[in-house]
Amino acid sequence: MTTRDAVFPAGRHALYDKHRYSPAIRSDGFLFVAGQVGSREDGSPEPEFAQQVRRAFENLNAVLAAAGATFDDVVDVTFFIVDPANRFERAWEIVPEYWGQAPFPTATVVGVTWLAGFDFEIKVIAKLPERAAG
Predict the structure, then answer these.
(1) This protein's superkingdom (predicted)?
(2) How would DSSP label each residue in 5-18?
């Protein structure tokens, strides 16, 4: 059986303990990051959509940093958006603030009806740099 090498960002353990999952698992040189939402430290959502998207990216970046990686190491992204017909363009205006330079990672956008009180979630897979792989 493979041992799970969990990665936790500073200061958010209660959120992950409450919902019984790891924010990321390091395995075979890759980092598999659970969906990150625009939650504040107390777990509540940012009320405004654009700020929720930004906070989701900030939370993602904290998980990546805890593993010794950055968004430049991300190879695959999945976005989940509630009401994408009305929110996709607004989210996509914010993405370049965090996305970096080409070549960009692969991306999939999924429209959903429920995200536990949130409107945006981002899930990624990153190829860890050699120094952080293990």
Answers:
(1) Bacteria
(2) EEE--TT-HHHHHH
* Residue 90 in tokens: 């607004």
Domain count along the chain: 1
Q: What is the rounded CA–CA span in Å between residue 102 and residue 100?
A: 7
- Tell me the C-alpha to C-alpha distance, in Å, between residue 18 and each of 1, 15, 34, 42: 25, 5, 15, 12
Give the domain extent around 86.
Answer: 5-132
Instruction: Report the CATH number that the domain containing residue 87 is assigned in CATH.
Output: 3.30.1330.40
pLDDT tens profile 72-118:
999 999 999 999 999 999 999 999 999 988 999 999 999 999 999 99
Q: What does DSSP assign to residue 39?
A: B
- Peptide bond connecting 9 to the previous residue in cis, omega within 30 degrees of 0: no
Residues 2/22, Cβ–Cβ less than 8 Å: no
Q: Using one digit for the tens of pLDDT, what is the confidence trace for 36-54?
A: 999 998 888 999 999 999 9
Dist. CA 129–CA 133, nearest whole Å: 6
DSSP-H helix ranges across the chain = 13-19, 49-66, 84-94, 96-99
